[in-house]
Design a protein that fits this description.
By secondary structure, the protein is of the alpha+beta class. Helix content is about 30%, strand content about 30%. The longest helix has 13 residues.
Length: about 80
């Protein structure tokens, strides 16, 4: 996966805060930078990438981890 510019951990957050925190992080970034999102749970694994894509960002990939966790890479759109 690509080297991230920024990183956030939302493994302890619940929806809708999972995407709120992700969006705030993306808002602070420049177009083209990559955000690594550490998340946990079925709902965030479905909703965060979908909502990011709907808002014009590129979902670069997701790597499943232990106990329902995942690492998600998002490139900020311009």
């Amino acid at each position: 996966m690509p080297a991230e510019t920024c990183r956030i951990d939302i493994t302890r957050d619940t929806c809708p805060m999972t995407f709120v925190r992700t969006r705030l992080a993306l808002d602070r970034m420049e177009a083209g930078e990559v955000l690594l999102v550490l998340l946990r749970g079925e709902e965030p694994r479905r909703n965060v990438p979908r909502t990011a894509a709907e808002q014009g960002h590129a979902v670069l990939g997701m790597e499943e981890g232990a106990e329902g966790s995942a690492r998600l890479w998002i490139r900020k759109g311009g």
